[in-house]
Specification:
disordered C terminus; two-stranded antiparallel ribbon; about 55% helix; about 200 residues; 4 strands
Length: about 200
């Protein structure tokens, strides 16, 4: 992968206050390029396929494409601005933080597409679009991620409950075993050495 310059930017010509193309075809091609760049973002695709943004996850992806396009209503846009916009959108809409440079790569791709559209070079954008259409028609989407229980960190709540129950049983058993039998009193002998007969208490 080529080295990405986060400070790379595009700027509207002098006297022009926006980066939007006046030519309708150029603007349409650029917007298509932004959509293809956003759809290329695997981290976002994973979030959409697994509905991390709720039932409207797919619509949220299109909305992210829209807010990136709106950035070019300004006079100057750089790679970092696009990257930050993408990262904030992932947190706000999908509750997902991205800790790699994937958003930076998408930002650089958007700037690249803008420069190509300026030169009316649409080949790469159209090729990506046709590939995306074919992929969509064949149903070759991103696989859903199944989040299973971690075998190295199982849920021990049930085990704790069992241990508590066992502890209660043991406590009850200990309580029942704390009662010691009364010691039998030995024979009473008088001063002359004769054993005295003791009177037994009445049974109740």
């Amino acid at each position: 992968m080529n080295q990405i310059d986060p400070a790379e930017y595009v700027e509207a010509p002098e006297g022009v206050e926006t980066l939007r193309f006046n030519d309708a075809v150029q603007q349409a091609k650029f917007e298509l390029g932004v959509c293809m760049a956003v759809y290329k973002w695997e981290e976002l695709n994973t979030a959409v396929e697994n509905s991390w943004g709720g039932p409207n996850s797919s619509e949220k992806r299109d909305w992210i494409s829209g807010i990136v396009i709106e950035l070019f209503n300004e006079k100057i846009v750089d790679v970092t601005l696009i990257e930050e916009t993408l990262l904030y959108a992932m947190v706000d809409e999908f509750d997902t933080e991205i800790d790699n440079d994937s958003a930076l790569e998408i930002g650089a791709l958007v700037i690249k597409f803008y420069k190509q559209v300026m030169l009316q070079q649409y080949g790469v954008i159209e090729s990506m679009y046709h590939s995306w259409v074919n992929k969509k028609n064949t149903g070759d989407g991103a696989p859903k991620v199944v989040i299973a229980a971690d075998p190295n960190n199982p849920d021990v709540s049930d085990e704790d409950d069992d241990e508590d129950d066992d502890g209660n049983i043991n406590d009850d058993m200990n309580d029942s075993m704390d009662i010691e039998p009364e010691s039998k009193q030995g024979p009473i002998v008088d001063d002359d050495g004769f054993e005295l007969v003791q009177k037994k208490g009445r049974r109740r």
